[in-house]
Amino acid sequence: MTFKNLPLALLLAGALLPALPLRADLDHVTVRPATPEEIARYYKTHILDTMIWNPASGVPISRIEVQLGNGKLLAYQGANLVVSTVISTGREGYGTQPGNYSVIGKDPEHHSNLYGDFCDTHGNVISGADAGETPPAGLHYEGAPMPWYLRLTDAGLGIHAGFVNGNAISHGCIRLPPELAEKFYRIVPVGTPVKIVP
Fold first, then answer.
1. Do the strands 63-67 and 72-77 form a parallel or antiparallel pair, or are they unpaired?
2. Tens digit of pLDDT for each residue in 15-67?
3. Which pLDDT score, from 0 to 100, does residue 101 have?
4. Residues 160/145, Cβ–Cβ less than 8 Å
5. Model-level pTM?
6. Which residue in 135, 154, 155, 159 has its CB near the most CB atoms, within 10 A?
7. Antiparallel, parallel or unpaired: β 29-30 and 23-24
8. Quick one: 15 exposed, middle or buried, by C-beta within 10 A (0-12, 13-18, 19+)?
9. Contacts by 131-134 with C-beta closer than 8 Å and gap 24+?
C-alpha cells in the first residue's frame, strides 16, 4: 500500500477547518464549506509553514512532548528542540490522555483495528464502520490507514500521519502532518519517552 498521495487525499476529503474565516457582509454571515483551494492555503500557512525540522543527521530523537492545549508536538535530541509541529489529537469522547508513555512499537503501514470503513469488492468506501460491526452483504471491513505508526499503548494510542488542523479531531491518536510523519518515524527509536501534557 502506498501513502504517497495521502496529504492531497486528506485535504480534498471535504474536511472543514473551523479556523477558516467566514464570509460576511453588512447584513448577515454566510457559512459554507471551504473550497479545496482555501483548505490547501490554510494547511500551508497554518501547518506546514509553522513546522520546525532541524534534527542532527544520524542522531535519534531522545524524547517527545505532546502539548494537548497548544496542539503541538515537540521532539528533542538531548536538550535541543529539533522538531515542532502542529498536531491533531482526540476529540470529545475520545480524548488523548495525558501521561508518561514510550514508543513500544513501530509499523509503517499500520491500519486501525478499531475504526475503518465498509468497502465493496473494488475497494470503494460505502460507509464508515467500527471494528466488530457486521458488514452488509457484499461488503468487507477495512481498518483506517495510520501510516508511519508509533505505538504508545497496547490499547491503540499512537502517533501517525493523518489530517491535521491543530484541533482535537481524532479518535485519540496523535496525528502528524503527512509531510513530516515518515521522516519523524525514521528517527524515533522504540523506547523513546513520550510525555503528553494537558
1. antiparallel
2. 434 444 444 444 556 677 888 888 888 888 888 888 999 999 999 999 999 99
3. 98
4. no
5. 0.79
6. 159
7. antiparallel
8. middle
9. none
What cell does 186 get? 525514521
Nine-digit cell string for 123:
475497494
If you search the block for the grid coordinates 461488503, which residue do you land on?
139
- pLDDT single digits (tens) 100-138: 999 999 999 999 988 889 999 998 999 888 878 899 999
Q: Which residues pair with 67 in a beta bridge?
A: 72, 197
Which residue type occupies 61? I
> What is the spatial distance between Cα 56 and Cα 38, in angstroms, rounded to a whole number?
34
Query: Would you list the domain boundaries of the chain?
Result: 6-106+151-197
Amino acid (1-letter code) at residue 20: L
